[in-house]
Specification:
304 residues, globular, DUF2236 domain-containing protein, MPAB/Lcp_cat_dom, oxidoreductase activity
């Protein structure tokens, strides 16, 4: 059992961080800097992004993202997710975690890296009406869509499987609007009601569609190239993510909720993962190390 547990933990750490000890090189930058960052201990962002529900949120966000044909075109034309799915995942994790836990200078630098990558992502796509349209990853509409579905995924997943959020859902949405603004999102939602309204506006406008590209991406997300030991746990989390998505979007994705108690099953899987990984992430530990270093001169006292 110990050998299986150690092997599973190693596979999990490599999947999430690219490193078997769970601490990729970029985490070292989180220890640097001279301020508490945009959020800090006790924030809604630290609570949500430090929780295990992020694992399910990532699946839900990727599924939802495929429904915008412009976003899907960018992934199809420029992403190497078939050849290097973990590379794309780790890049997204790096930005999310850095903005959450690093100081403001490092967070802005990381957001600049993402924005610079977006500079070359451009092309054309067929919209939901069958008309050809140009796209660029920096288009306000696409940035807004990606920000909205990611914020919604992390919020809803945490509400299902996480602890209480300091300040509630509104505070999380408002805090994470800062992250969106760092990469160019305009009019980012600042409350849960605004978030829900913006998401619904995309659907009601007839912007979203499902086609062969969406089906291919959904199939890949459903059956990723993970190790055999991780697949049973992933399949439960995938089913949990699907169950958490509102029916109107599930239907577009061609997915049906499982008849099994997957919400409960996902909660059990996340508890197992938390036990294997420990109570805090290496990124949060790095942030607390930075705050402890700054505390004597800046009056910063990391929360326990």
């Amino acid at each position: 059992m110990t050998r299986f547990t150690d092997s599973w933990r190693s596979h999990l750490l490599v999947t999430l961080s690219g490193n078997s000890d769970g601490r990729p090189g970029w985490v070292d930058k989180i220890e640097t800097g001279d301020n508490a960052g945009y959020f800090g201990p006790g924030s809604a962002a630290w609570t949500v992004h430090g929780g295990m529900a992020t694992m399910v949120a990532g699946i839900r966000a990727l599924l939802m993202q495929t429904l915008h044909p412009g976003a899907m075109a960018g992934v199809h034309d420029w992403s190497r997710y078939h050849e290097d799915p973990l590379g794309r995942l780790s890049g997204t994790i790096q930005w999310l975690v850095t903005v959450t836990f690093a100081d403001t200078v490092v967070a802005e630098r990381e957001s600049g890296r993402v924005a610079h990558f977006h500079d070359r992502v451009a092309g054309t796509y067929l919209d939901a009406r069958g008309e050809e349209r140009p796209y660029a990853a920096g288009d306000p509409e696409l940035l807004s869509w990606v920000h909205v579905v990611f914020t919604d995924a992390f919020l809803q997943s945490h509400l299902l499987w996480g602890d209480a959020i300091p300040g509630g859902a509104d505070r999380y949405v408002s805090e994470w609007a800062t992250a969106g603004e760092l990469i160019g999102v305009q009019n980012a939602p600042h409350s849960a009601a605004e978030l829900a309204a913006q998401l619904e506006a995309f659907r009601r406008a007839g912007t979203l569609k499902s086609d062969a590209r969406v089906a291919d991406a959904v199939r890949f997300i459903r059956y990723p190239p993970l190790s055999r030991g991780m697949l049973p746990f992933y399949r439960i989390m995938f089913a949990g993510a699907v169950a958490s998505i509102p029916r109107e979007y599930r239907d577009m994705l061609g997915l049906k909720p499982s008849r099994l108690p997957v919400i409960w099953g996902t909660r059990i899987v996340l508890r197992i993962v938390r036990t294997l990984l420990g109570p805090t992430s290496t990124s949060e530990d790095a942030a607390r190390t930075r705050l402890a270093r700054l505390a004597p001169t800046a009056g910063l006292v990391p929360e326990a």
